[in-house]
Design a protein that fits this description.
There is one protein chain. The protein is built from six helices and two strands; from the N terminus they run ββαααααα. It is mainly α. It has a domain at 103-194. Strands 1-2 form a two-stranded antiparallel ribbon. A hairpin with a 2-residue loop joins strand 1 and strand 2 (10-11). The longest helix has 80 residues, at 39-118. The radius of gyration is 44 Å and the shape is rod-shaped. It comes from Vigna mungo. It holds the Pfam family COG4_N. Residues 80-138 form the Conserved oligomeric Golgi complex subunit 4 N-terminal domain. Residues 60-120 form a coiled coil.
């Protein structure tokens, strides 16, 4: 068997070895324990091992007591993250619904302007033009609506032609004619601002 350092001719572990240089759980500590032959050194080492085990148990208990708090905090973070994701998804859905409403309203405005022109209701036609242009300005990023835009601009030019040739010479004196003139002038200003 292995030997331990001798003190005064006795085969015992020295104070340095027992005083903290043993790191329990390592291969060197196991080898050192196997090499012990002195009962006193073994007893002291056993007491140190028990004290170390108790210290490890206390540290483990402290760590385990934090687990509940950490689990609760993690759950709150997950819930918070889920709520943020749900809010973001809800916002996206809301924006999509607004956009769908705008697309429907825009299509209705285009239909309305053509019906109003056929019925010679120029005031309604001008309001449909204004509504369409406001929606178009708000959702300008969708290029797939160019056909609708072109159709509306053609209807607007037709309405302007009617107003300028038929109604305007009489003057935009009052009533519905004044509203049509104002709406067409306002939409022209907005188109210049928006680059239409």
């Amino acid at each position: 068997m292995g030997t331990t350092p001798e003190v005064n001719g006795n085969n015992v572990a020295d104070e340095e070895t027992l005083g903290g240089s043993i790191h329990f759980g390592t291969a060197e500590a196991v080898e050192y324990v196997r090499s012990l032959t002195d009962v006193g050194a073994m007893t002291r080492l056993l007491h140190e091992c028990i004290a170390h085990q108790r210290a490890v148990d206390v540290e483990l208990d402290e760590l385990l007591s934090q687990r509940t708090d950490l689990d609760r905090h993690l759950l709150q973070l997950q819930r918070s993250s889920d709520v943020r994701e749900l809010d973001l998804a809800q916002s996206r859905v809301g924006n999509a619904l607004l956009r769908i409403d705008a697309i429907v309203e825009r299509a209705n405005s285009l239909e309305g302007v053509h019906r109003a022109l056929e019925a010679e209701d120029y005031e309604s036609a001008s309001r449909y033009v204004q509504t369409f242009l406001q929606i178009d300005a708000q959702y300008k990023d969708s290029g797939s609506d160019q056909l609708q835009r072109d159709r509306l601009l053609a209807a607007k030019k037709q309405l302007e032609g009617i107003v300028h040739s038929t109604l305007h010479p009489a003057g935009c004196g009052g009533g519905g004619i004044a509203v049509v003139c104002w709406i067409l002038e306002e939409s022209d200003c907005n188109e210049v601002k928006n680059g239409v």
